[in-house]
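Lab notebook, page 48
Experiment: co-folding of the full assembly
Goal: obtain a model of how the components sit together before planning crosslinking
Operator: M.T.
Materials (sequences as entered):
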Amino acid sequence: ETGVTQSPTHLIKTRGQQVTLRCSSQSGHNTVSWYQQALGQGPQFIFQYYREEENGRGNFPPRFSGLQFPNYSSELNVNALELDDSALYLCASSTYRGYISGLAGVPSHNEQFFGPGTRLTVL
Amino acid sequence: GESVGLHLPTLSVQEGDNSIINCAYSNSASDYFIWYKQESGKGPQFIIDIRSNMDKRQGQRVTVLLNKTVKHLSLQIAATQPGDSAVYFCAENTNVEYGNKLVFGAGTILRVKS
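Observation: model returned without errors.
Model output:
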């Protein structure tokens, strides 16, 4: 187990509704990333949060939004749900350590630890 | 999107045989690659990674090969076991301002026959 937890495990909503998914990062991790995984596909990056601010965003519309809290946990909010939003939503935590010491301009690669996901079904 | 297809390719191997799973990546500027294993009902689990200044890296029973010329990664699993049955994804690391994001390939289903 990675120590990353997500809630709820499963969720069923209807089209047009709003949903909030939650993620608790692994102890000591300061960065949370969210991914959407449609059935039969690889995860797709939604956005990342660091220091309570969005830090990088994938190709998702503004109705996908998020929050990060001082304890580094995070929420993913999706408004005006569409049928195509049905997917497994994965949270991954990592630690941003800045650039590699002695190697100018080379950021450290931060291993991302994934939670079990929230299965969202939109009817 | 960056993932392709609804039908994942499947590799079936006999228990004890070696498995080779292949992946093509898209960004020639990517400098770090990771292989993940995803079992049913679970999130992706890190297996092994490799930086672009290497062409081979070995772990316990696993080896990753990187061919930057043709933008190709492979994962070799030695003496495949039933517990290796899962979906395997390669991922490219792309840096964002204060961290990194992963761009995943489509995945390959590995089925191990006893």
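Interpretation: Chain B has no helices and ten strands.
Next step: discuss with group before ordering constructs.
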